[in-house]
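Notebook p. 47: complex prediction with 3,4-dihydroxyphenylalanine.
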Amino acid sequence: MDDLRQKYLNAIADAADESALEDLRVTAVGKKGEVSLKMRELGRMTPEERQVAGPALNALKDEINSALAAKKSALEDAALDARLRDEWLDVTLPARQRPQGTIHPVSQVTEEVTAILADMGFAVAEGPQIETDWYNFDALNIPGHHPARTEMDTFYMHRDEGDNRPPHVLRTHTSPVQIRSMQENGAPIRIICPGRVYRADYDQTHTPMFHQVEGLAIDRDISMANLKWVLEEFFSAFFGTSVKTRFRASHFPFTEPSAEVDIQCSWEGGTVKVGEGDGWLEVLGSGMVHPKVLAAAGVDPNEWQGFAFGMGIDRMAMLKYGIPDLRAFFDSDLRWLRHYGFAALDQPTLHGGLVR
Ligand code: DAH
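Predicted complex, structure tokens below:
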């Protein structure tokens, strides 16, 4: 019995985990365990022998059981210690980063304008920001002596003496993309071109770089009536309320007839509210594309006609989102960007509603 005790107490002390401990329990004190089998032998003993062996076996069984229980709780403690050691985490570590950037109002409004006009069938076209003076002026019926060339405060690219390449300018408007698109795709055509333009000018409502969107629709029988419908649909969708327009006769070299377009607004309380009241605000230039412009782009003016318009994107952003100073758009001041910027994943769509 001493051998049995020593064997099991040693084995229990050496058990590496709970399943080893369970195996030991079964082989020692389980129903068919060694100690249990010994207990069965009691029946074959004399009463004297039994009086000695019985209590001794019971004591051994108790001793093994309590050794098993003690070892079990020691293993559990060790396992808990190991977990506490391994699963420790540093709650002072910095938290997961949250997105910092915002969508600039110019980008947001460009997306909004594009979403509305794309829904009407206009494709997006692009052109270079450094243009030849032919695309920026001549092809648009603005000849060399025309006052518009100086009125526009054009930035000219530097030319060394003896450099005879044609003059290049930073485009003063998005209108040259009309020419490039018609040269590339001919007629019929329906495009818009949002992009950067440049003029040497700087005050509360002018920055040397700003943004325009050009529109062009050429087909066989497009008229001013189509222009007016497109613009009224556009402004109503853009401002999220029905907006009346007023066409005033004007002059641009590249359109005939030409019209400046005002949108309905109220000036009450010192703030502009688009789509109400009986005031007017000039927002774009437009007209029927001049036959000379069509011809310069290789489109036969006897067969094709259509409208064009040009509008300031930054101006639209200021009006829609109540931003007072244009210059702040390009200061990269984080406080301004956080205040006026848009959530990165909040893309404008027509069905989602453009006004937020
Ligand atoms: N390009 C003109 C500007 O920058 C705006 C403009 C007026 C564009 C009439 C047009 C147009 O397409 O038809 O002031």
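Notes: The radius of gyration is 43 Å. Strands lie at 123-124, 130-132, 168-170, 189-198, 209-219, 245-252, 255-266, 273-274, 279-289, 305-312.
Next step: compare against the earlier run before touching the bench.
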